[in-house]
Design goal:
Shape: elongated
Strand order of the largest sheet: 2-1-3
Number of helices: 2
Number of domains: 1
Helix content: 25-40%
CATH class: Few Secondary Structures
Distance between the termini: 74 Å
Number of strands: 3
Largest sheet: 3 strands, mixed
Order of helices and strands: EEEHH
């Protein structure tokens, strides 16, 4: 019978978007993630809001414009 289980890597490299790199056991050799314990607000205790496109300001402008038109 053929082997049906994937190869297990004891030292799979995980790379986070923040730059943190660590090893875990996985069936993949390398994994890329967006958030890890080194940068997640729950673990760091730092609150941060990501508004790179100015969506909050655009929303507030639309609300103010709608109120002005009434």
């Amino acid at each position: 019978m053929k082997e049906i289980h994937p190869k297990y890597h004891d030292k799979a490299k995980v790379t986070c978007a923040c730059g943190e790199v660590f090893d875990i056991g996985s069936t993949k050799e390398s994994i890329t993630i967006e958030v890890c314990s080194a940068c997640h607000p729950f673990y760091t205790g730092k609150k941060k809001i990501l508004d790179t496109m100015g969506r909050v300001e655009k929303f507030k402008e639309r609300v103010a414009k709608a109120k002005k038109e009434k």
